[in-house]
Amino acid sequence: MGKLDDALLPVFAAQHWLLAHAQVIEAGGSPTQIERRVELGRWERVDARVYRLAGTPRSWEATVLAPVLSAGPRSMASHLCAAALHGIPGFARATPEISIPRGNRYRREGVRSHESTDLDRCARQPISGVPTTDLPRALLDVGRYVGDRRLHRSIEWARRERGITWSDLIRTLARHARRGRPGIQRLRRVISANAHRAEVTDSDFELLVLALLREHGLPEPVLHFRVLNGTRFVAEIDLAYPNLKIAIELDGSHHLEADVRERDLPRQNDLVLLGWTVLRFTWDRFATHPEAIVGEIRAALRDRLAA
Predict the structure, then answer these.
(1) Three-class SS of residue 12?
(2) What count of Cα atoms within 13 Å lies in the side-chain half-sphere of residue 218?
(3) Phi, psi of 279 (to 5 degrees)
(4) Is 78 in contact with 132 (CB distance < 8 Å)?
């Protein structure tokens, strides 16, 4: 073998005996050298601009990696494939499924591909040599296919075996939430129904409500907006629409304590006297009637805009 083959052998070995066209060029090879090796039968073309070293073993991981390499450097195994690669129980080694950045084009029989606008919002995790969406993103994506109970079982496995927390899932939900995004509503429902109150911090609660508003296409509020009356500090609002003077206050478990309630009431009165509309929501209300929360915020926005 020549110097090029010697340089590429470790790359082949690390990638289930596959190699992308771009990797050959990076190693100093040329398109002519690629075609020569294919013609001689030393390399086999397995996908667009992806090659296998002839005579090497085939694997399921290689069938997933080939389209990932072909689709470009920012592509990843995702959805059901990611669930199988992460080892989530009940997810078999099925049809290759990948996510690619929106605007890229990849179509091949036997491969399920998804164009994604938010791949940059998850980590690209190599598993068995295959670039894969991180576990919280994989759980969000399988919510496209499975019901609430199965998603909950998968989450409990991830919490027990991989150290994933409810906060990890809440942050993933907030990063990816948008109207019509598959999996968002199901993941939010499972979190709301199963995250014990003690595990949901005030910041988690804020992110969940923020994700709910994004999911329903409402304008994005400002987090932790500070209200001043002249130079006097009045309040720091959990979520606010400052231009419309709408305050959204979220009452976690500590707000049930008497001293906290006593401290909240004067602050709320000050906001009302300054012309603010104040909406308060508890965790229980969010968990049981999220659509009602959306409706009340939408009505407050409509009324303020009309005024």
Answers:
(1) helix
(2) 23
(3) -110, 130
(4) yes
Range of the domain at 183: 59-195
Structurally, the chain folds into a number of domains equal to: 3
- Which conformational region is residue 79 in: left (phi greater than 0), alpha (psi within -120 to 50 degrees), or beta? left
Full-model pTM:
0.89
Q: DSSP letter at 143?
A: T
- For residues 32-55, one letter each, b for 16 or more C-beta atoms within 10 angstroms of the residue's C-beta and e for the rest, the string is eebeebeeeeebbebbebbbbbee
Q: How many CB atoms lie within 10 A of CB 279?
A: 16
Residues 6+ positions from 273 with CB-CB distance below 8 Å: none
Task: Measure the N-to-C terminal CA separation of the chain; round to a whole number of Å.
Answer: 78
Nearest to 67 by CA among 46, 52, 90: 46
Give the pLDDT confidence of 65-124 residue by residue, as tens digits. 999 999 988 999 999 999 999 999 999 998 999 999 998 889 999 999 999 999 999 999
* 282: CATH: 3.40.960
Whether residue 215 lies inside any domain: the answer is no
Write out pLDDT tens, residues 23-56.
999 999 999 999 999 999 999 999 999 999 999 9
Taken as a whole, the chain contains a residue count of: 307
Same domain flag for 50 and 66: no
